[in-house]
Amino acid sequence: MIIKLNNKDHEIEEGISLAAFIENIGLKPDGIAVAINYEVVPKDQWSETILHDKQELMLIQAVSGG
């Protein structure tokens, strides 16, 4: 299956959760937000949110500083 993350294709295994995908690409969940098809997914739902073929994900990462 293929999904788009910030306009880049990623091949994923069927049945993978959003939480597992974030971990697999080496990101820590702190300080990031994810939208699937332009709808933000609350962090407490990541583990039960299953990704599907051709979904578009947008990842936004908070950056501290001034």
Task: Using the coordinates shown, work out and report the CATH topology.
Answer: Ubiquitin-like (UB roll)
* Structural category: mainly beta
What portion of residues is helical? 10-25%
The CATH architecture term is Roll
Give the percentage of residues in beta strands.
25-35%
Spans of at least 5 consecutive residues whose pLDDT stays below 50 are: none
* CATH secondary-structure class: Alpha Beta
Cα-based radius of gyration, to the nearest Å: 12 Å
Q: What strand line-up does the widest sheet have?
A: 2-1-5-3-4
What's the order of the H and E elements?
A: EEHEEE
If helices are DSSP runs of H or I spanning 4 or more residues, what is the number of helices?
1
Q: What about the largest sheet?
A: 5 strands, mixed
Number of strands: 5
Give the averaged pLDDT, no decimals: 94
- Tell the overall outline: globular
Count of domain modules: 1
Q: What would you give as the CATH superfamily?
A: Beta-grasp domain
Distance between the termini: 40 Å
